[in-house]
Recover the amino acids of this structure.
């Protein structure tokens, strides 16, 4: 299937595995559950960010931290939810969030989600074999994609970074 593009409707039925961050302790694990985009994205402006892997060099140093430090600025521009997906399992995503200071979900608009088999990335042509490529999209409250960009070179964060997304809001 072709990658999602500006003007497309975000597809229904998309789900990710999710272990909610309920406690900042790295030894406390939430119960894994299903994150339904149909439910969680409803009437929300969402930034969906994909990275190849939790704790990997570029993702850890240059991709996730700017989104976390820009969470308030993104909220001020009308973003209700920032969802970060990678091909790691839900507990690794939660641990990565905790290691980077993502607060419990009751205090945060950031969700660390698992696309463990790269199903979303493969379905929309944005995968790197068994991992998702590095991309970002904005889904508006009506479900319309208003921004969708994928990096062309590995290890580079330009069009999928927080700064690029903020410039388009």
């Amino acid at each position: 299937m072709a990658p999602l593009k500006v003007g497309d409707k975000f597809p229904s039925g998309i789900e990710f595995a999710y272990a909610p961050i309920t406690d900042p302790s790295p030894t406390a694990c939430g119960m894994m559950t299903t994150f339904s985009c149909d439910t969680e994205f409803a009437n929300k402006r969402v930034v969906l960010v994909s990275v190849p892997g939790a704790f990997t060099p570029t993702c850890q140093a240059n991709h996730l931290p700017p989104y976390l430090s820009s969470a308030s600025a993104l909220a001020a521009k009308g973003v209700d939810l920032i969802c970060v997906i990678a091909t790691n399992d839900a507990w690794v995503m939660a641990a990565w969030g905790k290691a980077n200071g993502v607060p419990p979900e009751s205090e945060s608009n950031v969700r660390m989600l698992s696309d463990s088999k790269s199903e979303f990335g493969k379905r929309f042509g944005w995968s790197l074999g068994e991992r998702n490529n590095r991309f970002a999209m904005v889904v508006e409250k009506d479900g319309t994609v208003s921004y969708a960009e994928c990096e062309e070179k590995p290890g580079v964060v330009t069009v999928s970074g927080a700064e690029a997304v903020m410039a388009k809001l």
Remarks:
- The chain is about 25% helix and 25% strand.
- The chain has a mean pLDDT of 94.
- Helices lie at 37-40, 57-69, 71-76, 90-99, 119-123, 162-168.
- The chain has one domain: 15-20+29-168.
